[in-house]
Amino acid sequence: MFRKTLTSLLFLVCALAATAQERADSAAVRMLRSDFGVEFTEGNTLTLFRTGQEKFDDLFDAVRRARAYIYMEYFNFRNDSISALLFDLLAERAAAGVEVRALFDGFGNSSNNRPLKPHHVAALRRRGIDIVEFDPLKFPWVNHAVTRDHRKIVVIDGQVAYTGGMNVADYYITGKPEFGDWRDIHCRIQGAAVAQLEQIFTNFWLKATGRPVEARADDLPLPAATAPAAEAEAQPATAGPTAMVGVVDRVPRQTPKIIKRTFLSLIDNAQTQIQIINPYFIPGGKIMRALKRALRRGVDVQIMVSDKSDIPVTPRVVEHCVHRLMKHGAEVYMYTGGFHHSKIMMVDSCVSFLGSANLNSRSLRYDYECNLLVADTATTRRLQHIFETDKQTRCYRLTPEAWRTYSHSRRFAAWFYQILTPFL
């Protein structure tokens, strides 16, 4: 009896040890496949863009070469010079017979200081652009602020797609006077994952308009695009083939927990290192506890957040969260080179998670979001390079001594405004 009990205990210990040793990328892939039916594809090519100039130069070139259709889904198109250039290009392609469809979010549009107004939308439609506002703001208004379409997706001819953290606005290139440069990460994808992003768009187009998108039999390949010269010289591996990519799409009533569960899986299975850049780092209790567990396991947890933000209250709430983690051993870096709007996470130098989702209640509980889980060392190291460069050149480390230099009012605000966490 004793021997049988001992054997069972040893088996249990070995099973637990084997589970604990599962790589973070393998665990996340297994969870997404089994629990959410996410299809992972191989042979994709990802090119990362670190600036708005890189992203828009590449996107505009792809739009010019479109031959069948262009689908765009953004949180907002700010009514400024960069969107005017984009809409001119889209109108030219529409006149050449290219099908052009565009979606933007009603709340996202109304919350930016240069929204598209009804007469702007009507003018774009007259130019051949089928543009639709999802869930326009109507009385009593507040009910339209809960669930928003926060995705950023472009698909062209079924051959190339773009996704990440950038909307369409001048400040991705010029910055803003109140904090300087606007930093962000976006990417171009070529390969099997493009079809999945296109399916997300067409599903949402049907929801927003009631009109299905007919399957295209005339999809035409784009000529091979090239990475921006500066990026290609600095990191040629950026545009290499990736081992595995999964499109992690959050639909509020269908997959409400998919992005949160992915964050938790990656954190709980991290063995050596976690690096996070997120503009609104206000995670709920489960993710905070997971990060503390990782710290207790000896995982190197590094978090980068911005010293300034486009939302005035947010930096104080973020400071409260990262200060708590700092006291448990996390390395916290305060970005001072502008506003870092990037939403990226790298784990164990082998897997990265990037896209539109913030680490706050809104992204994890309410909004439509789209992220990529990239199980690829080259892409992850490229993102780590961005993290390390910014850490060394544009950040200061939050330490107990640095915290004490903050004014009493700033530290009080960091504590007091945490009551707003469920709404941010």
Topology record:
Blueprint: H1 2-20, H2 24-36, E1 40-41, E2 45-49, H3 52-64, E3 69-74, H4 81-95, E4 99-105, H5 106-111, H6 118-126, E5 130-134, E6 153-156, E7 160-164, H7 171-174, E8 182-183, E9 186-190, H8 193-209, H9 229-234, E10 245-250, H10 258-268, E11 273-277, H11 285-296, E12 300-306, H12 314-327, E13 331-335, E14 339-340, E15 344-347, E16 351-355, H13 361-366, E17 369-374, H14 377-394, E18 395-398, H15 400-405, H16 408-416
Parallel strand pairs: 3-4, 4-5, 8-14, 11-12, 12-13
Antiparallel strand pairs: 1-10, 2-9, 3-6, 6-7, 7-9, 10-17, 11-15, 13-18, 15-16, 16-17
Helix pairs in contact: 2-10, 3-4, 10-11, 12-16
Structural write-up:
With 424 residues, the chain is an alpha/beta fold. It folds into two domains: 202 residues, Endonuclease, Chain A, CATH 3.30.870; 197 residues, 2-Layer Sandwich (Endonuclease, Chain A), CATH 3.30.870. Helix content is 42%, strand content 20%. It is built from 16 helices and 18 strands. The strands form three sheets. Strands 1-10-17-16-15-11-12-13-18 form a nine-stranded mixed β-sheet, sandwiched between helices. Strand 3, helix 4 and strand 4 form a beta-alpha-beta unit. The longest helix is centred in the N-terminal third of the chain and has 19 residues.
